């Protein structure tokens, strides 16, 4: 009828973690109780989409075969909010009307004004993430003409990057 906080202890038993909660005494024969438990489990990144707990209710007064355990499977769902930020250096640029690209040149200035695009992908949590794939579509042609001449693609940290086809075709 009333609500009470349980006293629980965490212990290791045969390489597994056991949480032991004492419900208290005395309890009358045939009494029914409901127990709500909230468990905080870490390190679930590689556990798949569910975790299974073994639950067992035991009485110290009358041990019996009725003290069988049950398996409870709980779905695991990682949640992480990703934030993509980007900017261009310089923020804007204008080519002179008389400027024309020099075909076959290996000088950077003959292919246009250098513009660096920087993207940052941030994990705002609450979970950690791994195996994230970011696809950036960069328009390098417009109407069959070169819009952006892509020189290089790079990353910082423990990320890897696949260079798109056609990057720096004239080896500038």
TrEMBL record:
<dbReference type="Pfam" id="PF20806">
    <property type="entry name" value="Integrin_A_Ig_3"/>
</dbReference>
<dbReference type="GO" id="GO:0008305">
    <property type="term" value="C:integrin complex"/>
</dbReference>
<dbReference type="InterPro" id="IPR048286">
    <property type="entry name" value="Integrin_alpha_Ig-like_3"/>
</dbReference>
<keyword id="KW-0472">Membrane</keyword>
<feature type="domain" description="Integrin alpha second immunoglobulin-like">
    <location>
        <begin position="3"/>
        <end position="76"/>
    </location>
</feature>
<keyword id="KW-0401">Integrin</keyword>
<dbReference type="Pfam" id="PF20805">
    <property type="entry name" value="Integrin_A_Ig_2"/>
</dbReference>
<dbReference type="GO" id="GO:0098609">
    <property type="term" value="P:cell-cell adhesion"/>
</dbReference>
<dbReference type="GO" id="GO:0005178">
    <property type="term" value="F:integrin binding"/>
</dbReference>
<feature type="domain" description="Integrin alpha third immunoglobulin-like">
    <location>
        <begin position="83"/>
        <end position="171"/>
    </location>
</feature>
<dbReference type="InterPro" id="IPR032695">
    <property type="entry name" value="Integrin_dom_sf"/>
</dbReference>
<dbReference type="InterPro" id="IPR048285">
    <property type="entry name" value="Integrin_alpha_Ig-like_2"/>
</dbReference>
<dbReference type="GO" id="GO:0007229">
    <property type="term" value="P:integrin-mediated signaling pathway"/>
</dbReference>
<dbReference type="GO" id="GO:0007160">
    <property type="term" value="P:cell-matrix adhesion"/>
</dbReference>
<protein>
    <submittedName>
        <fullName>ITA2B protein</fullName>
    </submittedName>
</protein>
<keyword id="KW-0325">Glycoprotein</keyword>
<dbReference type="GO" id="GO:0001525">
    <property type="term" value="P:angiogenesis"/>
</dbReference>
<dbReference type="GO" id="GO:0033627">
    <property type="term" value="P:cell adhesion mediated by integrin"/>
</dbReference>
<dbReference type="GO" id="GO:0009897">
    <property type="term" value="C:external side of plasma membrane"/>
</dbReference>
């Amino acid at each position: 009828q009333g609500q009470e906080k349980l006293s629980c202890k965490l212990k290791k038993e045969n390489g597994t973690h056991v949480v032991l909660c004492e419900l208290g005494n005395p309890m009358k024969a045939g009494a029914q109780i409901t127990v709500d438990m909230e468990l905080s489990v870490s390190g679930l990144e590689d556990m798949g989409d569910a975790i299974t707990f073994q639950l067992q209710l035991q009485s110290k007064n009358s041990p019996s075969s009725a003290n069988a355990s049950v398996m409870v499977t709980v779905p695991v769902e990682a949640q992480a909010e990703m934030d993509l930020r980007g900017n261009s250096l310089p923020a804007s640029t204008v080519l002179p009307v008389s400027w024309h690209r020099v075909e076959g040149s290996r000088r950077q200035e003959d292919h246009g004004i250098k513009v660096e695009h920087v993207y940052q992908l941030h994990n705002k949590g609450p979970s950690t993430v791994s195996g994230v794939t970011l696809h950036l579509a960069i328009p390098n042609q417009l109407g069959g003409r070169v819009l952006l001449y892509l020189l290089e693609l790079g990353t910082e940290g423990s990320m890897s990057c696949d260079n798109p086809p056609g990057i720096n075709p004239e080896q500038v």
